[in-house]
Design brief:
The complex is a heterodimer of chains A (248) and B (244).
Chain A lengths: L1 E10 L2 E11 L4 E5 L6 H9 L6 E6 L2 E2 L5 H8 L2 E4 L11 H12 L4 H14 L15 H13 L5 E5 L7 H18 L2 E6 L2 H7 L2 E6 L2 E6 L10 H7 L3 H7 L1
Parallel strand pairs in A: 3-8, 3-9, 6-7, 7-8
Antiparallel strand pairs in A: 1-2, 1-4, 4-5, 9-10
Helix pairs in contact in A: 3-4, 3-5, 4-5, 5-6, 6-7
Chain B lengths: L1 H12 L7 H41 L8 H41 L2 H7 L4 H38 L5 H9 L5 H26 L5 H30 L3
The chains are: A alpha/beta (248), B mainly alpha (244).
């Protein structure tokens, strides 16, 4: 479980996050949703420690990450897997080397065991026989899947996904969503997904946090989202035609 | 001043939370090939022309018959060893290797590859930059030796083919009044320049923010800042090392 307590962050005079608290449950796909520029990605980066919040704390299973020393932070980070918006695959390494990278750095596994683990993870995300391809030779959807394989290769306890569907066609988006949901349940990990895609919300959102102008406005399940009673959330949810038709 | 302070903090981060020796060894070897071996051809080409031009220009300016011809080789030796090989090659090195370092790190930054390393609990600055600096410290002095050898060889060949100076006079000039301290001086300069170029270029690239445009700006800034630092260090070292 990940708990955030009273997180605030500003860049210069601009307050990006206002006093955000919440809990992200283990074994569930937790979503942070909101329009572009509401601070979702900044919040995610505060949670993983890429940005230091001005105020507030982040707890990983009761371990205070914000106030931890560098060694403790490194230790917690080794339990984290993250899928970045663009995949963030290392250009100079092929698919196999990319997925194997966390094992090379963080474990003492034998080369044979590492290769077995890499092949298992690639198979798990539906990629086979692409081990030797470079990131520039594979599609956007495949990059995301390689990114997921790299994120889970070290058996993480926490999985973070920043806009996993951005730039993907609807079919591939569903595939990636399903994969994230399945992996969360299969490995019983705490997953946080930042998205503004309502298909993801309805598809895999077990717990949803809605952000608006840097504030948390609503929290609940995807089933409750249709009747939240929050005007800003309704505007966000029913901004596309499919959802409008569904409401009617 | 803020960038200056940030640069020293950046240097400090290179030696904390380091990975295993094996990891750095492999990365440093890769960098040695990228920044050393792959620069050798360019260094030989540029140095050869520098040596040839220095020989021709020195001969052209020595109009009086009172100065013996072997002095041409002395002038070529002193210029090549003390300035042309370490300093001019540093400018070329900054343009080729420094820009590549800044561009590579800048691209890694904007495509979140550096963030990916940080999330894995890896000290990205140490992991990415330290091997570049070590490789630079190993390879740049070797490139300077290569450059000096190529420049003097080219001067020798041009002097002979153009009938400027006989091979015997050239060899005599190279060996006469030779102070071995010049080699020590050139090597000290090489280490300082190698460190400055690799660290400044990496610093510029590592802290790139924005998109492709900013990567271009960081790359240009890496080259200009490195070259200015090299020239300033050249002056300071000349002052310090000649005061013995």
């Amino acid at each position: 479980m990940i708990k955030i307590s009273r997180i605030s962050k500003s860049f210069g005079d601009r307050m990006v996050l206002h006093d955000i608290s919440g809990e992200f449950e283990k074994g569930k796909t937790n979503l942070i949703i909101g329009s572009s520029g509401t601070g979702k990605s900044v919040l995610l980066k505060c949670i993983v420690g890429l940005i230091n919040p001005d105020l507030g704390s982040v707890f990983y299973d009761l371990r205070n990450f914000t106030e931890a020393d560098k060694e403790m932070k490194a230790e917690i980070r080794r339990e984290i897997g993250m899928l970045f918006q663009g995949g963030a695959l290392f250009d100079s390494k092929n698919v196999e080397e990319n997925v194997m990278f966390p094992l090379d750095i963080l474990t003492t596994m034998t080369p044979h065991d590492k290769l077995d683990r890499v092949n298992f993870c690639l198979k798990r995300v539906g990629l086979e026989n692409v081990n030797k391809k470079m990131p520039s030779e594979i599609s956007g959807g495949m990059k995301k899947r390689v990114g997921i394989a790299r994120a889970i290769v070290n058996n993480p306890n926490y999985l973070f996904c920043d806009e996993p569907n951005s730039g993907l066609d609807p079919q591939t988006s569903i595939l990636i969503d399903d994969l994230i949901g399945e992996i969360t349940h299969e490995f019983d990990i705490t997953t946080i997904v930042v998205t503004h895609d309502m298909n993801s919300v309805m598809g895999i959102g077990e717990k949803v946090m809605f952000m608006y102008k840097g504030r948390k406005l609503w929290e609940g399940s995807s089933k409750e989202i249709m009747n939240s009673g929050v005007a800003e959330l309704d505007d966000f949810v029913f901004s596309n035609k499919v959802m409008q038709n569904l409401k009617r | 001043m803020r960038a200056f302070g940030q640069y020293f903090i950046f240097l400090g981060t290179l030696i904390v939370r380091m990975e295993t020796f094996k990891t750095y060894y492999k990365l440093t070897l890769d960098e040695c090939i990228t920044i050393g071996i792959k620069s050798a051809a360019l260094v030989i080409l540029v140095s050869s022309f520098i040596g040839a031009v220095t020989t021709v220009q020195t001969a052209y300016n020595m109009t009086t018959p009172l100065i013996p011809r072997y002095v041409i080789a002395q002038v070529v030796r002193e210029m090549v060893v003390l300035e042309l090989a370490p300093t001019i090659i540093a400018v070329i090195y900054a343009g080729k290797v420094g820009s590549s370092m800044a561009g590579g790190l800048g691209t890694m930054r904007i495509t979140e590859q550096i963030d990916a390393l940080e999330v894995m609990g890896i000290n990205s600055a140490s992991y990415l930059v330290l091997p570049k600096i070590i490789a630079s410290l190993v390879m740049y002095p070797l490139l300077v030796i290569l450059a000096g050898t190529a420049a003097i060889t080219a001067g020798y060949l041009v002097g002979d083919f153009a009938g400027i100076i006989s091979p015997t006079d050239f060899i005599y000039g190279l060996r006469s009044f030779f102070d071995p301290y010049a080699i020590t001086f050139a090597m000290i300069k090489s280490f300082v320049f190698a460190f400055l170029i690799a660290s400044i270029s990496s610093f510029r690239g590592y802290y790139t923010q924005g998109g492709a445009l900013e990567v271009g700006i960081a790359t240009t800034s890496a080259v200009t800042t490195s070259v200015i630092a090299v020239l300033a260090a050249d002056y300071l070292l000349a002052q310090l090392l000649y005061m013995r």
